[in-house]
Every structure is written in structure tokens, then in C-alpha cells.
Amino acid sequence: MDSDLKQLGDALVGALPEAVLSASVAYDELTLEVEPTRVIEVTTYLRDDPACLFVCFIDLTAVDYPAREKRFDVVTHLLSPKHNRRIRIKVATDETTPVASLTSVFPAADWFEREAYDLFGVLFSGHPDLRRLLTDYGFDGHPLRKDFPMTGFVEVRYDDEQKRVVTEPVRLPQEFRSFDFLSPWEGGVDYVLPGDEKAKTNPQ
Predict the structure, then answer these.
(1) Contact in structure between 114 and 122 (CB atoms under 8 Å)
(2) C-alpha distances out from residue 204 to 135, 199, 200, 201, Å
(3) Higher per-residue confidence, 165 vs 64
């Protein structure tokens, strides 16, 4: 199986020079790294070529690598029922450079691209309706980015006086605590408590 996938990967690199940057096999699945400006060409070839026939769109998502210049990998999975093979396509991009939408090749990519835009902030050019899918209108930020704060930026609650749901900035108040550093329960350090200095350290 791996040898067949490797042969297919080599054939794709040869058939689509400079469009398929690399091909590798892992876990019985072929992975292609694709030049972002040519992703439509590559996916169309994978769908239509008789040796490929990856006609079934499985899913699309993004992966965040904040330390990289191109911090996102847009990852698409396709299936060829005819040849019983799966393929993974990776396209690297940053926060401002859009990736070509696959909706013209696979209409099923529509909501997956909206989800990637909503949760990661990845932009897709040519998408028919690129707007948030899971978060609310006016939501600030993209929750699956690794630098998104765990608390979020705003909180939603029902205000009984206004009789409606209100949105407010997140507040994390810390209640006042008085620490007794002489207490043996506050860390268990070795010191003499007041009054104990009169006790005999070595009783006879």
C-alpha cells in the first residue's frame, strides 16, 4: 500500500511541477504540500484524472503554528472510492493572505471553509458567503488560535433589570485573602511559632 501511494505521490509531483511542492506517506495516507496559488489546479486534477479520481470531499480544517511566518496549514482530506485511497492536501498561509476557495471544485467545502474562517481566521478568496458559522455576530477573535485567551474577551449573561442578554468584557475579580505566614498550614516551613520559644527543645 505504501509503495503504491509513494508511486502516486511521485507521479503527482511530476505531473504538476511547482504546484505540488512535496509528497510523503504516513499512516497509509498520501500527503501533498501544495503551492497556495495553484490549489484549484491540483484539486481539479486529483478529482478528474483517471489514476486519482478523488471525487469525495471528506473535510477541511486548519492547524495553527504561531511561531511560523505562515502560521496556518489549511488541511483538506479527499477520498477516491474507485481506488480506495485517501489523500491529504496541505496549503500554508498567514493571517492576511487568502487561500483559494475549493467550493468551485467541491461544493461541500462551503461550510468547512466558513468554520476555518470563524475559528482560525483563515481567509478564502472566491468563497460565495464567507462569514462566521459557529460564533455569534460581532464575536471578537478566533477561538482555535493558540494565542486566543482561555477566558475569551467578552462574556454573555442575562440582565434581569434590562430583561435581555448583555455582552460585557471579561472580568476576573480576585477575592481578598489574608495570608497567615506563621500558620503551619501555609506551606509547612520550619520556624518557631510565637510562644514556643519558651518550650524546651531537648526535654530531660
Answers:
(1) no
(2) 74, 12, 9, 10
(3) 64
